[in-house]
Write a structure and sequence with these properties.
Largest interface: A-B, 68 and 68 residues
CATH topology of chain A: Farnesyl Diphosphate Synthase
Largest sheet of chain A: 2 strands, antiparallel
Number of domains of chain A: 1
Radius of gyration of chain A: 21 Å
CATH class of chain A: Mainly Alpha
Strand content of chain A: under 5%
CATH architecture of chain A: Orthogonal Bundle
Shape of chain A: globular
Oligomer: homodimer
Structural class of chain A: mainly alpha
CATH superfamily of chain A: Farnesyl Diphosphate Synthase
Helix content of chain A: over 70%
Strand order of the largest sheet of chain A: 1-2
Number of strands of chain A: 2
Chain lengths: 356, 356
């Protein structure tokens, strides 16, 4: 486990270096001409720093484990690819991920993120939407700048991985938004997994697919190793949803308050399982409690009481582990035995246990 | 002129047909499997229709001239390309454009668009941000689905055109947002052109570049014909900004109220020119009036009086025409003489005169 922490720490420097190269903390003409070409007229540097570099780096500077690019690098190594050749591509899943959080916070009317007010609270909603959105596209510069380092078939497959996962993440988000709006009766477990696979799993899946493609891997490897990323995302979402059902001590570490998801009426996996497994009476009462959107501690405890009565928290934890282990089993035969493969396996186990 | 109107009308059917094929009004499993592949778990059709298909088609159904895809088709013909082979790609600039308006309306806190409340007013901001954003990515399906119809070098160039213009549009938008926030002193004409080139010109430039690339055109053609699209966008922005300075009759046709830009304090080309050309006294007074954010009719008329004193409206109209004519002159030698070329030229002239 200490190995994995060290690995993440080591790679963070490389990853942040690449991000800074593709999007520096302070934009100047030299950078803009490199990234965008000579202005036909004239760039307004003050405006671009004010509305892009400053808010984006305020956000990136708050931390984040950069585990998606680390997964990308680990898979590259496990497939015998050259990490140095592909290193520019680490920015793609990472910047897209950070942008998606910034946007998600606007959509959810969030207040705080990583210990500071959300970007839209600090810089305005217009700045935050535009800054979050450019983070989906800026990393495409890694494609443009590395055009000659890869054969054309490879590049096209990589573009397709990007395109498909960027569509899927919005499909997942659409599902989640719709559920939040109260149209959440009768969500099935499989629909919950699908929503998480797309909303939370896509960018890890993109990281995994890009690693396979750029290392010259097969379509089957792309599919099955991509699935590891996807299911890691689902596992994280399941565990994240459990946190607000846990005891109050945990809220300080994750920024999610005790019982928040009960107040929100969220259909997390534990809730979905309980609604399926519970007696008619318990089921009815839990639905009542969820629809109250209560902040009353005793009512929240009552809801959690019903959920724990049906072992739904253990059920959800077990499911998270099972999903990831199943995809590992599928991908295992496609990865040659190596030290890098062992490290990848440890990383995945670490990820589900520790929820990085 | 009647020719061009007829041409647009004719192509609208084809363009809307392609959009519907890539994103139908009602999503079903067959479509989702075609677009996204089989669900690993289970799609929630109700949620996807509620949060994507319904709001997106509510918006697309409001009209729009579809002139970017029409420009794409005209350039294809003028270069001797096969419109049938490239037709799927019409959805790229069009959907991205429609998405960008939906997002722009959120950023500007807009109320109405094309005679109905903005999408975020009808469906909520979360739905609108996500729906607008997926319209940037969905059209990438045209690439994925036509992978085998083009050679790989061509496809990569087309992806690059998409990538570069999607970055630029956010650079333009960032500049405009920053200026809106009152950091608008001393904007130079060249900076205004650059902002418009990126904010308004990029998607027409993308349409033009895609047409050149997919027809097998050269890099020089891509650059210079792309520039026609870009400068058309600038010309539109200039003219759009003039509308709120015109007489009150015009507001009903464009949805922009008389004097709105004066109230907003907007640094349009006419304002920028006046601030440069005016006497010290007039300059000072105009800045005062713009900074008042007044809705008082007499003060708005006073501001417009200063602007017209320096012939700034004619100046701006002339500039719009000049920019487009200059780029046409640059591209002219690169287009073989043909009926299609004549139609393209008429289209461009029509576009700047009529502001489609």
């Amino acid at each position: 486990m200490a190995d994995i922490m060290r690995f993440l720490e080591e790679k963070k420097g490389l990853i942040d270096g690449e991000i800074m190269r593709y999007f520096p903390k302070r934009l100047d003409i030299k950078y803009l001409e490199w990234a965008m070409g000579k202005a036909a007229y004239e760039y307004d540097l003050e405006a671009l720093n004010g509305a892009l570099a400053t808010p984006i780096w305020d956000f990136l500077g708050r931390g984040g484990k950069r585990w998606r690019p680390a997964l990308f690098l680990l898979i590259t190594e496990a497939l015998g690819g050259d990490p140095d050749k592909v290193k520019d591509f680490v920015i793609i899943p990472e910047l897209a991920h950070e942008g998606s959080i910034m946007i998600d916070d606007i959509e959810d009317k969030g207040e705080m993120r990583r210990g500071r007010p959300c970007t839209h609270r600090l810089f305005g909603q217009d700045v935050a939407i535009n800054a979050g959105s450019i983070m989906y596209f800026l990393p495409l510069l890694a494609f443009v700048k590395n055009r000659k380092r890869f054969d054309e078939k490879t590049l096209i497959r990589a573009y397709e991985a990007y395109a498909e996962e960027m569509i899927r993440i919005h499909i997942g988000q659409a599902t989640d938004i719709y559920w939040h709006k109260g149209k959440a009766s009768g969500i099935r477990e499989a629909q919950y997994f699908q929503m998480c696979a797309y909303k939370t799993g896509c960018l890890a899946r993109m990281a995994a697919r890009l690693a396979v493609v750029l290392s010259g891997g097969s379509r089957e490897q792309e599919e099955k190793i991509g699935r590891i990323g996807e299911n890691l995302g689902i596992a994280f979402q399941i565990r994240d949803d459990l946190l607000s059902l846990g005891d109050e001590g945990e809220k300080f570490t994750k920024g999610k308050g005790f019982g928040d998801d009960i107040t929100e009426g969220k259909r997390s996996l534990a809730v979905i399982h309980t609604l399926k497994a519970a007696s008619q009476q318990d089921r009815k009462r839990l639905l009542e409690l969820l629809d109250m959107h209560t902040t009353e501690n005793s009512l929240i405890r009552e809801a959690i009481g019903i959920i724990t009565k049906y072992n739904a928290i253990e059920y959800a934890k077990g499911k998270a582990r099972e999903l990831v282990e199943r995809t590992w089993k599928d991908a295992d035969p496609l990865l040659p035995a190596s030290e890098a493969k062992e490290k990848l396996h440890s990383f995945i186990r670490f990820a589900i246990e520790r929820d990085i």
